[in-house]
Amino acid sequence: MPVFSYLAHPVEGAKDKLMNEVKECDHCEVIPADNEDILIILTDTPDDDAEKKLWKKLTNLKSMRSLDMIFGHAGEDARKNIKKG
Amino acid sequence: MKKLNLDNSRIIFYVFAGCVIAAVFIIISAFTFKPEEYHETLPATFIEDFDDNGDKIFSSFDDMADEYLKGSSTDRTLAEFYSRRQYPDSPPIILHPVVETFDEQVQCLACHESGGWSEELKRNTPITPHPEHTSCRQCHVRSIEEDLFVENRWESVPPPRLGGAHLPGAPAPVPHSLLMRGNCVPCHVGPGAVTEIRVEHPLRGNCRQCHVPVEQIEPFKRGS
Amino acid sequence: MDITRRKFIKSAAVNSAIATAVALFPGISFSAWTNKEGASGQILWEKTPCRFCGTGCGLLVGVSGDRAVAVKGDPNCSVNKGLCCVKGYHSIQALYGKDRLTKAMVRKNGKLVTVPVKEALDVIANKMQETIKKHGKDSVAMYGSGQWTIPDGYAASKLFKGCIGTNNVEANARLCMASAVVGFLTSFGKDEPMGCYDDIDHADVFITWGNNMAEMHPVLFSRMLARRKKRKDIRIIDLATRMTRSGQAADKAIIFNPQTDLAIANAICYEIVRNDRVNWDFVKKHCSFHKGKTGIGYGIEDHFKFKDKAQNSSFQEFKTFLKDYTPEKVAKISGVSAMDIKYLASVYGDPDKKVTSFWCMGMNQHTRGTWINNLVYNIHLLTGKISTPGNSPFSLTGQPSACGTVREVGTLTHKLPFGVVMKEKAREKAAKIWKVPVKNIDPKPSYHTVEMFRALDRGDIRFMWVQVTNPMVTIPNLKRYRDGAQKKDRFLVVSDVYPTPTTDVADVILPAAMWIEREGFYGNSERRTQHFEQILPAQGDSICDTWQIIEVARRMGFEKQFPWKQETYIKDIWNEYIQFHDYPAHRMAPYNLLKERSGVQWPFVNGKETKWRFNAKYDPACEQKGFDFYGKPDRKAWIWLRPYEPAAESPDREYPFWLNTGRVLEHWHTGSMTRRIPILHGSMPAAYVELNPDDAADLGIVNNSKVKITSRRGSIVMIASINGRGRPPRGMVFVPFFDEKYLINEVTLDAFCPMSKQPDYKKCAVKIERV
Fold first, then answer.
1. C657-748 adopts what CATH topology?
2. pTM confidence score
3. Which stretches of chain B drop beneath a pLDDT of 70?
4. Does residue B8 lie in a domain region?
5. How far B101 CA sits from the closest chain C CA (Å)?
6. Chain A contact present for C554, CB below 8 A
7. Between these two residues, C93 and B90, which has the higher pLDDT value?
8. d(CA B197, CA B187)
């Protein structure tokens, strides 16, 4: 269950548009900067496949200029415990 | 002897007549019972001296005006507070001159029962937590001589540390004995209180629902 | 555990991104994120109801890293408006006791040994199946708690009643709220108070019936004090059998002889009728008169059975019935002066005063608990002081979710989440929602709590699973039931957070995730459902009680009924559960709203909470203008003719003292949590026996003397307290029950109210000796 955070730069003047587009995606949270054209995107996906798909989707958004990964946590399959049944 | 007998019978007559009149009143009042009357004449509860006389917290809280409880103009410091005492819980000495009268209890409590501004001393009066003990000067005395008769090697213990809350923002426990200090309101609330120990929420009436005394410090252990 | 860990990982991820952004663009700000972190930056504040009493205070728990570090009262919670009591402020310390149970244990060759949780769950499921095979489905039982969250109780009910097919589900709330429930059902046909805590802001007079609120519901008591301070004509009257902090604070404290509250309540009605203070308009429109059986026994013997039979009555008959309760006659048995009784009647009867009555264990733990509940309702009904702001007969609850879980989910032998097992419609509804054949649900109630432990002793029950409670301290006449639980061929599973006298005799111990270490809901005294998130990781191998039940259910082959995923099971259970209550008189708030708010009151209809029930002005379930007591078929509130009957055991020459038991401010129930909180243990380290100073003097007992208390069932030696926290009248002693070293319930009597089956912990006869 990977967790990643990114800094996203929108194309000129499309900050709000980008924000709405990212909000549409599953497993995504978005935190806009108040005073710069920049967004923080937090992804929390169930598995590696979903995470790769999401990354592809995000990078292909029209109002996305660039997406820089800042933090990555690869998930913890080894830590499966009883509660997963 | 004769005269005495006469007096006796007269007394018996008067008592009898009194009883008849009283009985009539009792009968009349029984038939004209008005429940509302009870609201005005709420029979007082006999308060018993248990729970460190904790009832006084409730009555002090109820009797003092919100404005007084909220008053914060105190200039009394904790250092000053302890400078009046030999050891942390000892009775403080009297600082100001006392006019000797036979009526001393009235004189002390006039200021120290409910506090307020003292024009003479230009400060707010501290309130006693135990106004029911009216022979004040059996414990509180004036100090008029600074030189000692003989040096003394006695040493006090440090006063309890302030705060002591077990969590950030949690209510602090009561670090002192509650004997004669069971009423929190006089010392911790109002303009006569000591600055460092004045509470920030004077309009809460049940102090001990949050602040509990420390009876022992060892943690709980099963089977012990 | 994962959910919270993920939260911290995510928090770290966002913080890293912010740090990078700040390096790139000095002065950049992200208000959408920083708001969540609170003013102190380091601490994240999360909302939750308090872990302890039924008041249901809203707390904000400060979390730093993966630990709870601080508590404040939630200013947005209408219950406590930012104030807590000493237990609430230090509640989070109860999570970190050194002897916290973090590993599962199974008894092997007489010794408890640590095992993986999976193995323990296998043992439980196998043992249950084996026991059912050998002794029938009614040989397994679940004993839960008013501290169960709503999903815990729901899962237990579904497994036992729906899947296994036994009605052997009970909860400790039977010991605490059963009389209140039956009182509500017999008087109104609907459980739980009509009013809410806002009544405190409207009432002119507060009358507490055997209820030491200053220590047991301190935050509500503070609200009363604050109201009295604001308005000098407000009165607090404490009716009790012992002088307490509440009596001290009251304008008037009235001490009555135990059990005579029944007579006093009738005498108040007598006076109201005699002085024609009856609200005729209300009574004629909204009340009907009824009587039931009398001389109904005390349930001391095994297999005791009782069923009341309601008969119609009339005001005339009621008036004749009351003739036995003139203040003068009642003064003789109650010890309360006729003047004081008249005073009480004048307060209740004054049409210009709004009166709120509060009660809790004094009236509920009573061999005539149902009756005394009925009788106090009678007073409020005769005077029409009900269901309007400030006019409230208010039955307080003891535990955080006695209402939410036990009463609303119905984790009692006769109950289902909707209705009772005896009703076919209720069984059909449950079977449909639970996806089980309707014949699975047994139409016959089995054992109520005391009888359940008797059955365990007799061998009718062979397997019992105890969650979130400590019966080996709390069951009355304890010795019999502790010996019973340890008999050969009895199997006891205990889910708890600390070792207790109950885990000491367990065959399997499951470590439980406590309070905010899992997601859940409580339901407080005023019909308020309170959601809490998982705020902290569970410790060690501990698991949420709901998930324990799900795991065992799946192992027993009920995967279809317990299909939920670990990420969403609490939400899924909530959504399934509220189907039972999808009608205006009981509709519950949706999950998302509960997540947002500091509790929501039901009935929640058209986006609005209901503060006062049975009053068309506030309650959308009313079908007529004004009042509508829709719980009863005649749409009326029922006034009951209930006589005074003596206690099951009264003092006599051999055992001349009443024994009264209860709680203290600092400790919650058996102290298994609060005694691990340093400040609470420090303030109240050990139990004691409170005596009246004159009795103590007669017996040569002084403070800290060793005193032996003996009843017909057992004896105990403990330390005397004179003029301590409370002061009993002559002829009574009081012992708090939080201390496992002094098991006072070995002395108490297992008599109960025949209607509610709730035992009376407040009255039995003992003798007192100096040792």
1. Barwin-like endoglucanases (2.40.40)
2. 0.83
3. 1-48, 100-106
4. no
5. 36
6. yes
7. C93
8. 8
Encode pLDDT of C559-614 as tens digits. 999 999 999 999 999 999 999 999 999 999 999 999 999 999 999 999 999 999 99
Please say if the pLDDT value at position C26 is more than 80.
no
Q: Is C700 exposed, middle or buried (0-12, 13-18, 19+ CB in 10 A)?
A: exposed
If you count residue pairs, one on B and one on C, with CB atoms under 8 Å apart, how many are there? 161
Render pLDDT for A7-64 as a digit per residue (tens, 0 to 9): 898 988 888 888 888 888 888 888 888 888 889 998 888 888 888 888 888 888 888 8
Domain C192-293+314-399+630-641 is found in CATH 3.40.228.10: yes
**How many Å lie between the alpha carbon of A66 and the closest alpha carbon of chain C?**
14
Inform me whether the pLDDT recorded for C35 exceeds 90.
no
Report the percentage of chain C scoring pLDDT > 90: 91
Please report residues of A whose CB lies closer than 8 A to that of C32. 31-32
Q: Has C87 been annotated as catalytic?
A: yes
Of the candidates A3, A5, A29, the beta carbon closest to that of C6 is on A3
Mutation pick from C5, C30, C541, C550 vs chain A, by most beta carbons of A within 10 Å, is C30
Chain A positions in Cβ-Cβ contact with residue C551 (cut-off 8 Å)? 82, 85
Give the H/E segment covering residue A22.
helix A15-24
Section C262-285 average pLDDT:
97
For C543, nearest residue in chain A (alpha carbons): A83
Coil, strand or helix at C11: helix
Asked whether residue B222 is domain-assigned, the answer is no
* pLDDT of C431 strictly over 90: yes
Q: Tell me how crowded residue C719 is: count the other CB atoms within 10 A of its CB.
A: 14
Neighbours of chain C (3+ CB pairs under 8 A): A, B
What is the number of structural domains in chain A? 1
Residue C352, class by beta-carbon neighbours within 10 Å (0-12 exposed, 13-18 middle, 19+ buried)? exposed
- C65 classed as catalytic: no
pLDDT for the residue numbered B47: 55
The pLDDT of residue C215? 95
H or E segment at C473?
A: helix C471-474
Q: Are C746 and C753 in contact (CB under 8 A)?
A: no
CB contact under 8 A, B209 and C221: yes
Judge whether B95 lies within some domain.
yes
Report CB contact under 8 Å: C249, B58: yes
- Secondary structure in 3-state letters for C85-118: CHHHHCHHHHHHCCCCCCCEEEEECCEEEEECHH
CB contact under 8 A, B216 and C682: yes
What's the pLDDT at B5?
54
In a domain, B202, yes or no: yes
CATH number where A7 lies = 3.30.70.920
Between C70 and C33, the more confident residue is: C70
> What are the pLDDT digits (tens) for C681-721?
999 999 999 999 999 999 999 999 999 999 999 999 999 99
Q: Which of C53, C56, C84, C87 is catalytic?
A: C87
* Annotated domain spans of chain C: 1-37, 104-176+404-563, 192-293+314-399+630-641, 657-748
Query: Mapping DSSP to helix (H, G, I), strand (E, B) and coil, where does residue C740 land?
Result: coil
Closest residue of chain C to B55, computed from CA coordinates: C248
CA distances from C63 to C85, C92, C101 (A): 20, 10, 22
Q: Is it the case that residue C496 has pLDDT exceeding 90? A: yes
Say which of C147, C259, C365, C399 is annotated catalytic. Answer: C399
Whether the CB of C124 is below 8 Å from some CB of chain A: the reply is no
Contact C350 B36 (CB under 8 A): yes
Range of the domain at B120: 52-142+168-216
- Closest-CA residue to C666 (of C95, C74, C201, C88): C88
> Which residues of chain B from 161 to 190 reach within 8 Å of chain C, CB to CB?
166-171, 173
Segment (H or E) for C522: strand C520-523
Of C62, C146, C247, C398, which one is the catalytic site residue? C398
**Residue C650 pLDDT > 60, yes or no?**
yes
Give the domain C104-176+404-563 fold: Rossmann fold (3.40.50)
Domain holding A37, by residue range, is: 3-75
Does any domain span residue A47? yes
Give yes or no for a contact between C544 and C538, defined as CB atoms under 8 angstroms apart: yes
C13 contacts on A by Cβ (under 8 Å): 3-5, 42, 70-71, 73
